[in-house]
Design a protein that fits this description.
2 helices, 23 strands, transmembrane, Porin, 432 residues, mainly beta
């Protein structure tokens, strides 16, 4: 094939494998489990709370703290669900549409995971400096080699590390402001099968690996009095640039010449901005009401743009969405606080654009938790979340070797069913 056809072949390979998504407990591929305290009330009111546990949601949260404080959290994520074939078909060159074959049901393709996070805040009078380390986009999926979804998804591993240095100031007795940077490292491994022209030949394979560092920013305010606090913050979108290698192997016949490894493949895409509004309202000395609304600009994830030597773009078609949450904290005693909450989030994926690597859907998050102050300086937080997902279609038209004489359309027709997740979170706080 010509150099242009080689590039189109690589574009087809990357298009099938680079869609980072499918985290089975947060919308699209965003993870919100950065605080065990927040998890206990379904993340309702984090932008209006104080201390390092709220630093991810609002850098103003650390202003005017009486003492330095460290918070460490870990969440165990246990997703369940079935991804089923409803008649996915493939058309090889010169042939009619036929079934992709393979195992028609994939159970629990998204792996269990452990998500750690931590933050520290150190006050100097009305000014405080903070640092949060989180992993907001991380997951692993693993479909069987003979799955019906193998041409769009085989194995996926995405890890991010977000380092957020922040500074906050208590400007007045009722106003806190803060700002910071979001420095993110991203590492990805994605693979899927490639169809050979002959239907009796074994599938080929492709593996994409890449990583990169990127930077965004965050800013926020908190307005408060004796009975209410309102927090408003903004986390910018981030343009991610990953550089790595694409390996294609196992192709036979007329495609055999395309078994190769391309180096320095570059892919760019955006993760969304967040506009966060949260409130905490003291109804009684023991009872606090919490609420939070988040606007995610997922439409920024409109395409994955591929640089040299591919030079093309793959449309994604995500949409902007809202998340809504409400919850309560109840202080049983000075040492024990109980909390609960509920959260509703829609999926940013659209019908007709959803594939097996992104089996996302609308969901409800039901939460319960508690905090225990063991000593004046040491406290612990516990939380449990049950996330229920709506059954949803998996329907997208793609093509292997697009733009070449070997172009092979694949019409995905599947369904996400019986999906839910359990998340257990544990956190510790120490002031000094």
């Amino acid at each position: 094939m010509s150099h242009r056809k080689n590039a189109l072949l690589a574009a087809s390979a990357i298009a099938a494998s680079i869609a980072f998504a499918g985290a089975a407990h947060a919308q699209a591929f965003y993870l919100q489990e950065q605080s065990a305290r927040g998890a206990g009330r379904a993340f309702s009111g984090e932008a209006a709370d104080t201390g390092p546990q709220s630093l991810w949601w609002n850098p103003a949260s650390i202003a005017d703290l009486p003492n330095a404080e460290v918070a460490l959290n870990v969440s165990t994520i246990l997703p369940k669900g079935d991804v089923r074939d409803n008649g996915t078909v493939i058309r090889r060159p010169g042939q009619a549409f036929t079934s992709v074959g393979g195992n028609s049901s994939s159970s629990d393709p998204i792996n269990n995971g452990v998500l750690p996070s931590g933050a520290i805040a150190i006050p100097f009078g009305r000014v405080a400096f903070g640092l949060a380390v989180t992993s907001p986009y991380s997951f692993t999926t693993n479909y069987d080699a003979d799955s019906w979804a193998r041409y769009s998804a085989d194995k996926t591993k995405l890890r991010t590390v977000d380092i957020q240095p922040s500074v906050a100031v208590a400007v007045t007795d009722w106003l806190r402001v803060g700002g910071g940077a979001n420095i993110e490292y991203t590492d990805a491994y994605l693979s899927n099968a490639l169809p050979n022209i002959s239907p009796v030949a074994a599938d080929g394979s492709q593996v994409l690996k890449g990583d990169g560092w990127d930077v965004g920013w965050t800013a926020g305010v908190q307005l408060h009095n004796d009975w209410a606090t309102v927090g408003i913050s903004y986390k910018s979108d981030i343009k991610h640039t990953l550089k790595g290698d694409l390996e294609i192997a196992g192709l036979t016949g007329a495609l055999a010449g395309q078994n190769r490894q391309l180096s320095d493949v570059k892919a760019t895409f955006y993760t969304p901005a967040q506009i966060i509004v949260g409130g905490r309202f003291r109804a009684t000395d023991a009872l606090t009401l919490n609420t939070q609304f988040v606007r995610y600009t997922w439409s920024k994830f409109d395409a994955i743009r591929l640089g040299t030597p591919v030079n093309t773009a793959i449309p994604e078609g995500y949409r902007d969405i809202w998340s809504y949450a409400a919850g309560v904290d109840y202080a049983v005693s000075p040492k024990l606080t109980l909390r609960t909450g509920v959260q509703r989030t829609n999926t940013p994926t659209e019908d007709g654009e959803r594939d097996a690597r992104v089996p996302d859907s609308n969901r409800w998050n039901f939460a319960a938790g508690a905090s225990f102050q063991a000593t004046p300086r040491l406290g612990f937080d516990l939380a449990a979340n049950y996330i229920d997902f709506k059954d949803e279609s998996i329907d997208r038209v793609t093509a292997a070797y697009a733009g070449t004489v070997a172009q092979t359309p694949i019409v995905t027709n599947g369904r996400l069913e019986n999906a839910h997740a359990l998340v257990f979170s544990l956190g510790g706080r120490f002031s000094f």
